[in-house]
TrEMBL record:
It comes from Spirodela intermedia. Residues 116-502 form the AMP-dependent synthetase/ligase domain. Residues 58-107 form the Acetyl-coenzyme A synthetase N-terminal domain. Belongs to the ATP-dependent AMP-binding enzyme family. This is Acetyl-coenzyme A synthetase. It catalyses: (E)-4-coumarate + ATP + CoA = (E)-4-coumaroyl-CoA + AMP + diphosphate; acetate + ATP + CoA = acetyl-CoA + AMP + diphosphate. One of its GO terms (molecular function) is 4-coumarate-CoA ligase activity. Its EC number is 6.2.1.1. One of its GO terms (biological process) is phenylpropanoid metabolic process. InterPro entries: Ac_CoA_lig, ACAS_N, AMP-bd_C, AMP-bd_C_sf, AMP-binding_CS, AMP-dep_synth/lig_dom, ANL_N_sf. Keywords: ATP-binding, Ligase, Nucleotide-binding. Residues 564-632 form the AMP-binding enzyme C-terminal domain. It holds the Pfam family ACAS_N.
Length: 670
């Protein structure tokens, strides 16, 4: 029956409540359990093709896709072509291929066309309270068109890359939509990344233009983005890549034009050029499978991975997931605290919400500035109804006095959302009880840069939640849990989370490296997309994400996810947040003296190559490391030294040179 199993995930069966779903999952997931009582009886293709609701491969996604504007339709053929099985050849995922559309047109012109031109598309709240702005759908379209016309004028064409290095100004979504309008492929680089990270991304995708701003204020700090861009562009020139234009937005509240360093001939002020262009701009119709954007994930090993998303499937998927996972209504005011530098800001600040004609709030500042109540003040100011954030923000605000929350009424709130890592049950409860006054469901959305949109998520009105569980798969998504050998495990279990069969929002390749795409995601468990995450499923069929399997530390032979340790710590009534941090033992080149400056420059090296979040918390000088005779570092001993459990060092006689242990202990507080 395995060939038929995928037909089972039919929409008709999905929204009918948790109990039913878990039964369905047990059947779908537990192929190996197939027995007579689990026999699946499928609708005929003839029946499916005319049914109101049918399986993803049949009518379901094409019915939804009809809500959008397509210049040319996808005809009568199958809407999806896919091979996820490396054993059967190249991995390929294509949705609506041959159809043409434009996502900017669907997000703006289509919304205006249905009569919402004067509705607010964007509310913008600056770093300083009281500094704000807004744009209607009409105004947003005009700004997008002016920039699109400028980009076309300087020679940006369909398929060209454009790097966007901007903070959360309105100009960031404007720039994304302008690229999409002309078929250019945007690659947004988070404005917290270093010059080196920016350069690496520019070198990989070779844009014609980079769009940045001179500086930004975040909390009390000013960050000089133009200086960072300059350094990155110089680094690129040194590597033989020169970017023709650096379009720079003058962010007056942070820095004046005059103070900005300038490279004549390359640098152009945004405000000098865009007003000169027409406020309408013809749309570039693109194939559903033409590239929409590249977004680099951090890439825990080696060079960052350029995750490539295409147009048609991504459009349909982000819009639909947004609508159902947040129970979106036209009267909603939606605020997602994520930066557009991450996937969440692509799918759920920009595309998903605008495709629904939503009013979206964009916040430039920091959640604890000027104080820890800023978020809730903003919720009241704009009457935010849907608030989507990350567990780390919840945990950091939960540490503060409750009055910061309760001084705001928050009565507009309807649905809360969480993304980015597992939300530990105690943070979930605080979010639910304190922020949401125990009346707003929480959509704990599990998904990835690679998946484009939500994969496992509550449908807030449809089924009961469990604090800390992302609950059930979205329409048509087929998660499976496999063991080390890649066998699907049924029922209550835990293992590696994989996805069987594609969904419209899936990424299509890693830019310029399809082989790495296959190796990283499809080879570990042939036949499946491997998410890299661990997951368990409880007796009711609820999914519990346990974090990345490579974030696993091996403690005395037990594999433990850092997320699990953090969650256990945070479950302590007196602990607000925990991070299992980085403690580095560092050996210097012979003869180099140890110094405080060196310690700082080592930390800086990590910050600039990876980012501030990865900076080691502690550097411990290590003239030598405890190694076995075969050269393996004995981390067990290092951990004991780091935690000062010196009487638990255990047997050190097997070390190649046991005297290094005494040396390290002597240097503990140096
Ligand atoms: P990289 O892949 O480059 O190392 P990353 O995985 O952190 O970076 P993202 O794609 O932004 O980059 O994050 C996706 C990951 O975040 C998921 O694989 C998962 O580990 C975690 N995650 C996201 N949402 C949730 C959630 N609701 N519950 C649990 N984990 C989540
Ligand atoms: Mg990842």
């Amino acid at each position: 029956t395995s060939g038929h199993l995928r037909h089972v995930e039919s929409m008709a069966q999905l929204p009918s409540g948790a109990g039913r779903i878990s039964h369905l999952n047990a059947v779908v997931l537990g192929e190996s359990l197939a027995s007579e009582e689990h026999d699946l009886v499928f609708p005929s293709p003839e029946f499916s093709s005319q049914a109101l609701l049918s399986s993803p491969e049949h009518g379901f996604w094409s019915e939804i896709a009809k809500e959008f504007y397509w210049k040319k339709g996808w005809g009568d053929g199958p809407i999806v072509e896919q091979n996820l099985d490396v054993r059967k050849g190249t991995v390929k995922i294509e949705w609506f291929k041959g159809a043409t559309t434009n996502i900017c047109y669907n997000a703006l012109d289509r919304i205006i066309g249905r009569g919402d031109g004067n509705k607010i598309a964007l509310y913008w709240e600056g770093n300083e309270p009281g500094h704000d702005a807004k744009l209607t759908y009409n105004e947003l379209l005009e700004k997008v068109c002016q920039l699109a016309n400028y980009l076309k004028d300087i020679g940006v064409k369909k398929g060209d890359a454009v790097v966007i290095y901007l903070p959360m100004l309105m100009e960031l979504p404007i720039a994304m939509l302008a690229c999409a309008r002309i078929g250019a492929v945007h690659s947004v680089v988070f404005a917290g990344f270093s010059a080196e990270s920016l350069a690496q991304r520019i070198l990989d995708c070779r844009p014609k233009v980079i769009i940045t701003c001179n500086a930004v204020r975040r909390g009390p700090k000013v960050i000089h983005l133009k200086d960072i861009s300059d350094a990155a562009l110089l680094e690129c020139v040194n590597n033989g890549v020169s970017v023709g234009v650096c379009l720079t937005y003058e962010n007056q509240s942070a820095m004046k034009k005059e103070a900005t360093k300038w490279v004549e001939g390359r640098d152009i002020w945004w405000q000098d050029v865009t007003p000169k262009y027409p406020t309408t701009c013809a749309v570039e119709w693109v194939d559903a499978e033409d590239s929409l954007f590249l977004l680099y994930t951090s890439g825990s090993t080696g060079k960052p991975k350029g995750v490539l998303h295409t147009t048609g499937g991504y459009m349909v998927y982000t819009a639909t997931t947004f609508k159902y996972a947040f129970d979106y209504k036209p009267s909603d005011i939606y605020w997602c605290t994520a930066d557009c530098g991450w996937i969440t800001g692509h799918s759920y600040v920009t595309y998903g919400p605008f495709l629904n004609g939503a009013s979206v709030l964009v916040f430039e500042g920091a959640p604890n500035y000027p104080d820890a109540g800023r978020c809730w003040d903003i919720v009241d100011k704009y009457k935010v109804t849907l608030f989507y954030t990350a567990p780390t923000l919840v945990r950091s605000l939960m540490r503060e006095k409750t009055e910061y929350v309760t001084r705001a009424s928050r009565k507009s709130l309807r649905v809360l959302g969480s993304v980015g890592e597992p939300i530990n049950p105690s943070a979930w409860r605080w979010f639910f009880n304190v922020v949401g006054d125990s009346r707003c469901p929480i959509s704990d959305t599990w998904w990835q840069t690679e998946t484009g949109g939500f994969m496992i998520t509550p449908l807030p009105g449809a089924w009961p939640q469990k604090p800390g569980s992302a609950t059930f798969p979205f329409f048509g998504v087929q998660p499976v849990i496999v063991d080390e050998k890649g066998n699907e495990i049924g029922g209550e279990c835990s293992g590696y989370l994989c996805i069987k069969s594609s969904w419209p929002g899936a990424f299509r390749t890693l830019y310029g490296d399809h082989e790495r795409y296959e190796t990283t995601y499809f080879k570990p468990f042939p036949g499946y997309y491997f998410t890299g995450d661990g997951c368990s499923r409880d007796g009711d069929g609820y999914h519990w994400l346990t974090g990345r399997v490579d974030d696993v530390i091996n403690v005395s032979g037990h594999r433990i996810g850092t997320a699990e340790v953090e969650s256990a710590l945070v479950s302590h009534p007196q602990c607000a947040e925990a991070a299992v941090g980085i403690y580095a033992f560092v050996t210097l080149i012979d003869g180099v003296p140890y110094s405080q400056e060196l310690r700082q420059s080592l930390v800086l090296a990590v910050r600039s190559q990876i980012g501030a979040f990865a900076a080691p918390d502690k550097i411990h000088w290590a003239p030598g490391l405890p190694k076995t005779r075969s050269g393996k570092i004995m981390r067990r001993i290092l951990r004991k030294i780091a935690s000062r459990q010196l009487d638990e060092l255990g047997d050190i006689s097997t070390l190649a040179d046991p005297s290094v242990v005494d040396q390290l202990i002597a240097l503990t507080d140096s």
